[in-house]
């Protein structure tokens, strides 16, 4: 299927133009992928201003390294990986991802039976924002991006067991937060119910 990309009839033509540092192609690429890639950056860094900075750095990296794209796999996936790496580099520079909650402060396992079945994606993203940076980073890499614990350990410079522990704690905290959302929704429905 051929898609029209504002003057570029195929993705291959767009990539070729990007390799020539064509500013029009850069604009087309940014307009096409910026909203998706900003969503990725926001998942790692809650502050939208910081996420936008990461996004811009990520696109600069895409433009600088476009010659390294070998047309193996999805072009969007290649861009996504750069955005994830830029987000991780930002977190490393600011040492945010290393923040851990002490084991005694970690939330107890929540009962998954309390999780609300009517949860929408926006609710889940809001809950993810409440996770400590270390939990959120590992959860995003594992559950959303699909990295293995070995890959996460390598990316973050931690052990596999730390990655597994952070994921376990993130899931437990998310379950507890889901239970709290469920309780709030039930109390609102009771308050609005006619007697």
Mind sketching the topology for me?
Layout: H1 11-19, H2 23-44, H3 48-65, H4 75-94, H5 121-129, H6 133-144, H7 149-156, H8 160-192
Short summary of the structure?
With 195 residues, the protein is mostly helical. The chain is built from eight helices and no strands. The protein is 67% helix and 0% strand.
Structure notes:
- This protein is mainly α and 195 residues long.
- It folds into two domains: 1-94, RNA polymerase sigma factor, region 2, helix turn helix motif (Rna Polymerase Sigma Factor, Chain: A); 99-195, Arc Repressor Mutant, subunit A (Orthogonal Bundle), CATH 1.10.10.
- The protein is built from eight helices and no strands.
- The chain has helices spanning 11-19, 23-44, 48-65, 75-94, 121-129, 133-144, 149-156, 160-192.
- It is elongated and about 55 Å long.
- It starts with 10 loop residues before the first helix and ends with a helix.
- The model is unreliable at 1-5 and 99-118 (pLDDT under 50).
Please supply descriptive tags for the structure shown above.
195 residues; mainly alpha; 2 domains; disordered N terminus
């Amino acid at each position: 299927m051929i898609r029209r990309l504002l003057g570029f009839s195929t993705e291959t033509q767009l990539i070729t133009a990007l390799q020539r540092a064509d500013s029009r192609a850069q604009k087309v690429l940014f307009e096409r992928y910026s909203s998706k890639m900003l969503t990725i950056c926001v998942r790692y860094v809650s502050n939208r201003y910081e996420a936008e900075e990461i996004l811009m750095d990520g696109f600069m990296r895409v433009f600088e390294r476009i010659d390294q794209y070998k047309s193996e796999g999805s072009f969007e996936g290649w861009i996504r990986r750069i955005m994830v790496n830029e987000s991780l580099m930002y977190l490393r520079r600011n040492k945010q991802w290393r923040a851990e909650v002490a084991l005694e402060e970690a939330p107890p396992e929540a009962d998954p039976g309390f999780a609300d079945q009517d949860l929408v994606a926006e609710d889940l993203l809001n809950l993810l924002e409440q996770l400590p940076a270390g939990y959120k980073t590992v959860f995003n890499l594992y559950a959303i991006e699909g990295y293995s614990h070995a890959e996460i350990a390598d990316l973050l410079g931690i052990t596999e067991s730390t990655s597994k522990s952070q994921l376990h704690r993130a899931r437990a905290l998310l379950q507890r937060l889901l239970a709290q959302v469920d309780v709030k929704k039930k109390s609102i429905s009771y308050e609005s119910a006619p007697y």
